[in-house]
TrEMBL record:
Gene3D superfamilies: NAD(P)-binding Rossmann-like Domain
Protein name as catalogued: RCK N-terminal domain-containing protein
A single MF term (Gene Ontology): potassium:proton antiporter activity
Residues annotated as signal peptide: none
Amino acid sequence: MALTPWLAAGGQLIASRFELVDVRSLLPVESETDDLHDHIIICGFGRVGQIIAQLLSERLIPFVALDVRSDRVAMGRALDLPVYFGDSGSPEVLHNVGAERACAAAITLDSPGGNYRTVWALSKHFPNVKTFVRAHDVDHGLNLEKAGATAVVPETVEPSLQLAAAVLSQAKIPSSEIAATINEFRSRHLRELTELYQDDGIPLNYGFGVMSKSKAQQSDSSDDNNVTLGNIKDSQE
């Protein structure tokens, strides 16, 4: 994938001088982001966050990224990316990256607790931001939904589907048929999971993007009000 050389260059550039990085120079400053509007906040610049950053960069979609590991931040800066050192669960840090003007946040932190804190902070202080977050397991997904997440993405589902797609491609199945098969399985899996928990009286947005509450309350509860995981990206464009 093109991502590997894209990141390798930055990693090599900072490898010899990482010890000299001044964390203070990596902190977000409000004056550096006050011209951003309708941007995406990437919370966590690990493997998943880096992929999201590359995709947004290729589409010229404005974004900022946050991470508490200075090596990741320095690597992003070496590539001239808007990556800052900071706790994405801090309302002050979120304000400094223009959260009140952002349209969405992709939350991909390594720590389940960090993901929860970030969802809670955005939901409480910046309700304008739609939050898309990965869950480590179902219980974690439930907690994230209760914290106010717009959509909770199962961490283990997508890698499994990608592997299945690769295997199917070797069986000489047309790519359009593979895509249809994967999308149908994804939708069925997430629908069954949601119904399972709703039967127990637990509302769950696990794997689904949900429209704003005001709109949802005015409309019926048809499937049109939900966006499956496969279409989450489209809903943001």
